[in-house]
Amino acid sequence: MQFGDVPFYSAPVIPFTDGDADGLGGHATLRGFVTDRFVGRAATYANGELRWSFDERVLWNQHLRFMLVPFIDAGRV
What is the pTM of this model? Predict the structure, then answer.
């Protein structure tokens, strides 16, 4: 949540421990939406992912693991 008189250019910035991200949308937050699609004074989002490896192969000296990865993204501004 941003407080005070926030300048328009820093409204989409979301602070993370490993560096800032743009507003909700894009590969870092909500997949399937363009970056900064959702911008406001308060934002929240959640990502959930379940990984299941169903096969492993070695092909051309490369270790490959085939996985099923269902995910869900949710956000609100």
Answer: 0.46
